[in-house]
TrEMBL record:
Residues the record lists as binding substrate: 8, 66, 142-145, 175-177
Keywords, comma-separated and alphabetical: Carbohydrate metabolism, Cobalt, Isomerase, Manganese, Metal-binding, Zinc
Protein name: Ribulose-phosphate 3-epimerase
Gene3D superfamilies assigned to the protein according to its UniProt record, in alphabetical order: Aldolase class I
Organism for this UniProt entry: Microbacter margulisiae
Entry function: Catalyzes the reversible epimerization of D-ribulose 5-phosphate to D-xylulose 5-phosphate.
Needed cofactors: Mn(2+); Fe(2+); Co(2+); a divalent metal cation
Pathway: Carbohydrate degradation
List of catalytic residues: 35 (proton acceptor), 175 (proton donor)
């Protein structure tokens, strides 16, 4: 399977968000990645439903929402109504993870679980077959533009082994410090989806940068 590319709108130009969305629509990107932060689970606040509702009709590709929030269960139906196709919650923020996964899938969305850099992969062994995606954080969540954590590669390898052992359908998504160098390394270790924010939107030609990531 070709690597999927999910540009993170957190790094887009919010003064002209439509222009960047249209660029992603034209590009070889596969998903829109939306980082949702509440200022509680992570020390930052990003956009909420008003922004998602306003861009829903503009996005011609699946919307992949990464919830860095507490009490995610309270908003699952609302994210579905906002047009989200894939919804990822954090292992560290969910008291009843299996129930949350079931609730996401009951609403017709693909369900993902994100792991912080310090959270070991083996904690997912009882739910891995239920998951559409596992998001490995290769930086600490909350801010863009951080330095890639090398240990993430070993986690991807461990996760790939678990997926194969359990014969799970799960995709491995990676977010944080992704560029051409780290992206190639991540793919070699087993990543299926690369999330890139500043590397894409901070480049001279974001569409060309997406093309380069897609063809690593």
């Amino acid at each position: 399977m070709a690597t999927l590319i999910a540009p993170s709108l957190l790094a887009a130009n919010f003064a002209n968000l439509q222009k960047d969305i249209e660029m992603i629509n034209r590009s070889e990107a596969d998903w829109f990645h939306l980082d949702i932060m509440d200022g509680v689970f992570v020390p930052n606040i990003s956009f909420g439903f008003s922004v998602i509702d306003s861009i829903q009709s503009l996005c011609k590709k699946p919307m992949d929402a990464h919830l860095m929030i507490i009490h995610a269960d309270n908003y699952i139906e609302r994210f579905k109504n906002a047009g989200i196709n894939r919804l990822t919650v954090h292992y560290e923020a969910c008291t009843h993870l299996h129930r949350t996964i079931q609730q996401i899938q009951h609403e017709g969305m693909k369900a993902g679980v994100a792991l912080n850099p310090h959270t070991p992969v083996f904690l997912l062994q009882d739910v891995i077959k239920e998951l559409d995606t596992v998001l490995i954080m290769s930086v600490n969540p909350g801010f863009g533009g951080q330095t890639f954590i090398e240990q993430s590669c070993e986690k991807i390898s461990e996760l790939k082994e678990l997926i194969l052992k359990k014969q799970a359908p799960t995709l491995i998504e990676v977010d944080g410090g992704v560029n051409l160098e780290t992206g190639a390394k991540l793919i070699a270790y087993g990543a299926d989806v690369l999330v890139a924010g500043q590397f894409v939107f901070g480049s001279e030609s974001p569409e060309e940068t997406i093309y380069q990531l897609k063809h690593l």
